[in-house]
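Exam revision sheet. Question 4 asks you to relate a sequence to its structure. Input first:
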Amino acid sequence: MIIEYATPRGPSECDAYARIVAEAFAWNPEMAIGWVRDWNHACIRTVRVDGVLAGGLQLIPLQTYFGARAVGLTGIGAVVLLPQYRGKGVGKKLMREAMLEVQRSGTPLAGLFPATLPVYRSAGFEQAGVRCETTLTLNQIKLRPEIDALVRADRGLSLVPIANDESIRSTPPAPGSIHEQVRAVYARVGPHFDGHLTRPDNVWRTQIYAFKREETKGFAIVRDATGAVEGYFFYTQARGDSGMHLHVRDAACTTPQAWATFLRFLADHWSTVREATWMVPAEHPALSMLAEHCGRTRLGSAWMLRVMNVKAALEARGYAPTFRASFTLRVRDDMVAANNATWKVTIADGRASVTAGHGAEPAIEVDVRAFAPIFSGYQSPAALRLAGLVRCDDDTMLEVAASAFANARGSTPWMSEIY
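Answer key, structure tokens:
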């Protein structure tokens, strides 16, 4: 059996890969073909067995925020195999070759949303953040009294529809347009949440202005006196067994007044829509504005990270500006030899300097898999030591490392998109 990892042999093989995606995810084939095209055919990598297309994946160039700084990330999307090729080592070959390609590119991180854990752990991935779904009961949405009073004193915001069609989705936003202002709002909000993407054009096109190729509706929240955009939201509506349901595809605001306007928009649908879903965790700041529990949150999925370049990743992310300390990591990586070393990490002024250490010195010993949730702030080194995934006899060093990677932004690393 000859297994070949390659780029597609033209548009027809890209469409054939999309049909395998449709079969794997139970999607409409034509929708899957369009969805794959929207992400860009240049992202596709195929695997062939004896010359026959067996499956593939997407290598999507992205960036993700950690410590308010953007870190390079290759998103591994739509990993699929035809059923007859599963369990024969084809998937492992596909992932290994993809990881080696990412490593050669110099990108510090790789990320994915797993359907199963063992196959991705074998490639060096580990769970490092979450994608949550919060469901709100609309007739129960009420603001806390102090927030309600603040908002009532400021009536100067209006909802402005955001135009949306194929021509808008297929071109970058014009300077000064409402679309550019919407992106500027996200650019201000995104760095506050570890795990958020910086959002290139293809993410706006495939996840925000449309979702699985279904066009979304959107509103900008605009200050009447100045025309400044203080927030926005995009949503879709669908009829289910219990009636109409509203799906918030994205929302971001820079002021409490704008968040209150968004929440009131949801509440005003109570007579025709019972519930709305929104892909945010329970600790989202907008939910702190509510007077009472009016919903429930569940884990949609825990996304995984793989640290492709330990030194580059540590030096790219941000840290608390006032934090100053140093510690030593000893990383084991069976796939990327350059990671397999002892690293001296010195943090000052919000940045890290990473140099080669000495093998004999005390260190936090960690497999590259377990390093991913430490790096993201999803789990502390001490917690992973309890699980047997970290070795270190120096409790002070563990505490220092935990403080270095602690999420100072008040929530578990999370994102609302999926790739």
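Marking note for examiners. DSSP finds 13 helices and 19 strands in the chain.
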